[in-house]
Amino acid sequence: MRKYIFLLFIIFSCNIATKDQNDLNNSAEDTKEKLLTEIDSTHLREYIEKSFQNPIHSLEYQQYLDSALRIVPESAWLWQQKAMPLYKARKYQLGRPFLEKAVEHAPEKYLDYSAFMKCIFSKDYLKSISEFMRAKKEFGDGYVMDHTYNFYIGLNYLQMNKFSKAKEFLLLSKEQQFKDFPKDSPQEACHYLDWYYLGIADFELGNYNEAIASFDLSLKVYENFADALYFKGRSMTKLGNEKGAEWEKKAFENGDNTINEDNVIYEIYPYQVFHKLNKSVRPK
Predict the structure, then answer these.
(1) How far apart are CA 102 and CA 104, in angstroms?
(2) Residue 117 and residue 88: Cα distance in Å, rounded?
(3) I need a surface site. Which of 27, 129, 169, 189 has the fewest CB within 10 A?
């Protein structure tokens, strides 16, 4: 925490005395950073320190950030810090304007993050797709929260029952990771959740053999992944294989081994069968 406070202080604190005359004569249009007085810099650091001394869901946390933003209203990071706890508290409508401000001031840093929040948190799938497509166009294919943009676009389409489009982007995600990690085995180069959701797309499309192949690759990395075990069993049953029931039973026996993304403590992920709210699927 002290590291972030120090970095922010460095970013927004400028020593005017070290500026050469050419810099000082630059027009306001060319000057991107706000020059702070020593008093403003001191107050900025004080407000940020005090905000993080309070719980992130508290009113005091927000009020101190508001005070900091009165000094540096162009700080995308501060706007994001205001938005984040509201999204985690499922107060999406309250957090959205703050996240929009972060994107406005630094789209290269927060556009993909905003798209991620709309996919996993607020479930605003069309807007999430729009923002990811804009990020791809302006900044190229990238990663946010450990996954490719294409991965999240695929999830958005899954949640809208557009399974062919979901598969299209999940395949793009797979190929992107194969290209980025050419020395790794297929199951390692491509994230286990990519394999899982690619299996889900094929399951929904009725391509059960292809779905099983993807679930198997996911299970090579996460051996007791209950959700993959469950949908593999269902796929086998759809193909008339009586052993599918055994895989479904194994899934319930491993119900605690579900999707383990960091944000799963706040949100249920798409096609997460063994989630925290569904007590009926927990081992007895």
Answers:
(1) 5
(2) 10
(3) 27
Backbone angles phi and psi of 143, in degrees to 5:
-125, 145
Q: Residues 109, 76: contact at Cβ < 8 Å?
A: yes
Per-residue buried b or exposed e for 33-72, using 16+ beta carbons within 10 Å of the residue's own CB: eeebeeebbebbbebbebbbeeebeeeebbebbebbbebb
pTM for the full predicted model: 0.84
Tell me the per-residue pLDDT of 158-201, one tens digit each, with 9 for 90 and over: 999 999 999 999 999 999 999 999 999 998 999 999 999 999 99
Closest to 67 (Cα-Cα) out of 80, 56, 78? 78
- Compute the CA torsion angle 214, 220, 224, 226 (nearest 10 deg): -10
CA dist., res. 120 & res. 123, Å (int): 6
Higher pLDDT, 35 or 178: 178
Pick from 166, 161, 162, 222: nearest CA to 197: 166
Q: Are 274 and 281 in contact (CB under 8 A)?
A: yes
Cα distance between residue 277 and residue 273, in whole Å: 10
Write b or e for each residue in 179-193: b if 16 or more Cβ atoms lie within 10 A of its Cβ, otherwise e. Answer: eeeeeeeebebbbbb
Place of tokens 């403590």: 265
Counted residue by residue, the chain has a size of: 284
Bridge partner residues of 148 (DSSP): 143
Q: What is the DSSP track for 155-180?
A: HHHHHTT-HHHHHHHHHHHHHHHHHH
Instruction: Average the pLDDT over 241-268 and give the result.
Output: 96
Domains and CATH numbers, the chain: 141-284 (1.25.40.10)
